[in-house]
């Protein structure tokens, strides 16, 4: 998991965790809210792990509602140069010609943009699961 803090639209701090969102997101939110005045949350709303997206969405949405914060989604492909995104242990989501498919390829890591300028925010932040849960 990768979390960034932006001031004036520019990245000022990053937190990376190898733990699952369900294990670390609440703690990270607590630490950041004690250190910064948070006004907006933007998260990668997919594609990704069905459970990971669901946990992240519910946690972040609840946090935003409780604190009266703006909440947006962003396409995960915008955070890794449109390269493959891990779907599960063996498969990755691949974006080609505007369509997303599952393929057996190595995923790339997400990178936070230095600036939020040009990032297409999605006001309807619901997760984009791409595939149904099995």
From TrEMBL:
Q: Supply the EC number(s).
A: 2.3.1.234
Q: Which SUPFAM superfamilies match?
A: Actin-like ATPase domain
State the source organism's domain of life: Bacteria
Instruction: Give the source lineage, highest ranks first.
Output: Bacteria, Pseudomonadati, Campylobacterota, Epsilonproteobacteria, Campylobacterales
- Which InterPro entries does its entry note? ATPase_NBD
- Key words of the record: Acyltransferase, Transferase
- Listed name of the protein: N6-L-threonylcarbamoyladenine synthase, TsaB subunit
* Gene Ontology molecular function: tRNA N(6)-L-threonylcarbamoyladenine synthase activity
- The source organism is Campylobacter devanensis
Q: Tell me what gene encodes this.
A: tsaB
């Amino acid at each position: 998991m990768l979390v960034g803090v932006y001031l004036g639209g520019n990245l000022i701090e990053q937190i990376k965790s190898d733990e699952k969102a369900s294990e670390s997101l609440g703690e990270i939110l607590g630490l950041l809210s004690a250190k910064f005045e948070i006004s907006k949350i933007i998260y990668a709303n997919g594609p990704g792990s069905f459970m990971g997206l669901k946990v992240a969405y519910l946690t972040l949405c609840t946090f935003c509602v409780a604190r009266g914060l703006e909440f947006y989604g962003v396409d995960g492909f915008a955070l890794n140069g449109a390269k493959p995104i891990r779907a599960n242990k063996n498969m990755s989501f691949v974006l080609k010609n505007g369509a997303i498919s599952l393929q057996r390829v190595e995923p790339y890591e997400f990178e936070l943009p230095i600036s939020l300028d040009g990032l297409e925010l999605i006001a309807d932040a619901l997760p984009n699961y791409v595939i149904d849960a099995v």
